[in-house]
Write a structure and sequence with these properties.
mainly beta
């Protein structure tokens, strides 16, 4: 093992260990929130500079390898910014079918919009990036209300955007036709079981089911660490033809961090696991949408797995787009927890089977 590799391994494990010790989501601790947790929220819309360093190899120890399970590595970026509010990316959705214009959200109540730049099929950077506060119904930043800052999940239905707030286990809806990120949010009614999800282990993924798919018109809400009586992860079907609760089989101690619905009808679930010995693992599972129904226990094959031997961090966001050539490309982003020991990554893979 090279000195570079040894240093990288040490830094990676240190990042996983020391950062997560202070951050309750991965360390399983649940400290009382402190004012510092929202010190990176923005007060007004502002254009920001985001710098990008390419990640040419997903597995540095085998630079010729591009295939990882059912995914083929396209490329990635390490993102940094002189703007102290940039980071904490916990949700990510494309605003166009080309995989260029995006909407992201941080876990400190901030929207990010911008454009991914490409050279051919490879990502090269971000442009036109703007940060803006998430607003409540009164037009004030949601961070002004105690605990209303942990914006972890994001879904789109055309101009309607849904945001899940983990610590208070509430869902807000925004009509982007009314000002984009300046739109005011309304709190949606949810079943009591949603609001009873564990503190800091609640709503972690939202997916809206479009027309032409089973469960069309349903908002699927997945918990990070809410368990049923058998220890499986809890999901909810909100609205749509058959509202109710279902379960996702939990295996290998994984917890949900995000999800995306493919045109094929597969719900891809991004999961992660933390260990003090190995750091962070991630994986992606495919759940057939047609198997999801009230009372169902669903499961599906693992398409992809990675650990700190690969170029990953605390991966919390996933979306997909289909290229003009018909390829399905997955984009993953990481939440750096505003820690100097972690990174904001944007990774892209083509789904090959």
């Amino acid at each position: 093992m090279s000195n570079h590799r040894s240093r990288r391994s040490f830094i990676g494990h240190a990042a996983a260990g020391f950062s997560t010790l202070a951050l309750s989501r991965l360390a399983q601790a649940q400290p009382a929130p402190k004012p510092a947790l929202i010190e990176h929220a923005v007060a007004a819309p502002v254009g920001i500079e985001v710098n990008a360093r390419p990640i040419p190899n997903f597995e540095p120890r085998d630079r010729a390898r591009t295939r990882f399970g059912s995914l083929d590595y396209r490329g990635g970026l390490v993102l940094t910014s002189p703007h102290r509010g940039f980071g904490g990316l916990s949700g990510f959705r494309f605003l166009d079918s080309k995989g260029e214009r995006f909407l992201a959200i941080s876990d400190q109540g901030t929207w990010f919009t911008g454009r991914i730049r490409y050279s051919g099929r490879i990502t090269t950077g971000l442009g036109d990036v703007e940060a803006a506060p998430v607003l409540n119904a009164e037009g004030r930043p949601i961070t002004e209300k105690r605990l209303w800052y942990d914006t972890e999940s994001l879904a789109r239905d055309g101009d309607l955007v849904y945001v899940g707030l983990e610590r208070v286990n509430q869902i807000m809806r925004f009509d982007f036709a009314k000002g984009g990120t300046r739109a005011r949010g309304e709190v949606l009614p949810t079943p009591p079981a949603v609001r009873k999800l564990p503190y800091n282990k609640g709503l972690e993924a939202l997916v809206f089911v479009p027309k032409g798919q089973p469960l069309a018109g349903t908002l699927i809400a997945l918990s990070e660490g809410g368990f049923d009586a058998d220890g499986n992860l809890i999901g909810f079907l909100l609205g749509g033809p058959t509202p109710g609760q279902f379960s996702i089989r939990r295996t290998d101690q994984q917890l949900i961090s995000d999800a995306v619905l493919l045109p094929s009808g597969d719900l891809l679930i991004l999961e992660r696991k933390f260990s003090w010995f190995t750091g962070v693992d991630i994986r992606i599972r495919a759940i057939p949408l047609k198997s999801i129904a009230p009372g169902a226990l669903v499961d599906g094959p693992v398409l992809f797995k990675a650990d700190l031997g690969h170029e990953i961090d605390n991966m919390e966001g996933i979306d997909a787009h289909v290229t003009a050539d018909g390829e399905t490309v997955l984009t993953l982003v990481s939440d750096d927890n505003f820690s100097m020991l972690q990174r904001t990554l944007l990774l892209q893979f083509a789904l090959v089977e």
